[in-house]
Amino acid sequence: AAQGRVGGPCASAALSGLLAFASLTSDASGLGKHSLALYDPGRFMRLDAAASRALNVLPQRLDGSASFSLYGIMARARTAMGKRLLKAWLKAPLVEPAAIQQRLDIVEAMVADQGLREAVRDALRGMPDVERLARKLEAQRASLADLCQLYRASSVLPRLEEALRCHEGLAAELLVSRYAAPLAEKHDESHLTKFELLLEASLDLEAVPQEYLISAAYDSRLQSLRDQKDAVEAEIASLAAAAAKDLGLLLDKTIKLEWHKAANTKTRCLRITQKEEKVVRSKLNARYMTLETRKDGTKFTSRALKAAAERQAELAGRYEGLQKDLVAQVVGVAATFTGVWVEVAGLIAELDVLAGFADLATADPTRPYCKPEILDRDEGDIVIKGSRHPCVEVQEGVAFVSNDCVMQRGSSWFNIITGPNMGGKSTFIRQVCGSSRRSNSSAGKAR
To answer: What pLDDT does 162 receive?
Structure first.
């Protein structure tokens, strides 16, 4: 049946329009990189804009606080990928019991295992936006700085895999099969380990983050320029030491060698604090040139240091121009790993969101979350004990009174909610709807 739907005339026309809109056939570099799969909208709950606003699913422009929406409460992801995925999940919640149960089992494991939860979240701290970087890499628009960010992300994957494999609870097999094993496969010698070796061989990683350069060993002309740059850098260090001695200050303590940015150029300079500037002001005005004065200190230079810095900038420009073609070659080779990075981004985003759910569930013991019992679509009841509205209960000065909701097929499937104005009718309806669609429930018990 699926094959018939994919191959039908309407599907073929839609696919043709999509290919034309995305210009996939006009770019030879994209050939063979795409696959066709059947998208089943029945796997997700259809939530229109009105329902989303009524249930406070996503932040609204006039919200006074992030806690006014479910997204604001649940957005504990450490990565940009995780935050985008959470929005997608909230806009289209799952309805398949097996898929929902899998997410719940993973969240339950992270709630029970504090070491696992903290290890996953610590590993994801500072993780770059791999998804966006992978798209730039695919279009071969990535810079050396982007490649270095991917290199850093790749180096974190073994630590993330190890944390997942160390869990010994009921969800251990699920964590390994769903995340640890795929991460290990993506980081093996045929995939991201090879990517790391490529960057180690082609980039000057020791210069990062001050500069992003092709390794001088890559080309003899680069090596010559590198030797000249090193010589100038040594001269600059010597001039900085001489200036510190002249002013009676300690290099790297009371006087520091730093970079000064102005008019899209970056040159070396010296910086002292405002306190030290008052002490050496007479010498500073007589023998040096002030570049900038701010709250964090005064930047200045000497004639000799300025000349050396200009030679350094000129050599850096020549190095940059010479490495331009080499950068294109390195990016072209690195782009062959795009598919791997896209899959890794998906795994990281899922882990990030689920770890954020576990962090939310354990954040405040006075406002517990429970793991609901998920039944098949066409059987069972909706039973929620001690239900609370997660947005209302966190507002200042609110002592939320929990509520029960029992909807039994055939006897109380349709309920009428009555009460005075401002009595909590809408809040009750929203919290029941919200509890019925979230991966974890702000209630004592739910099914």
So the answer is: 96
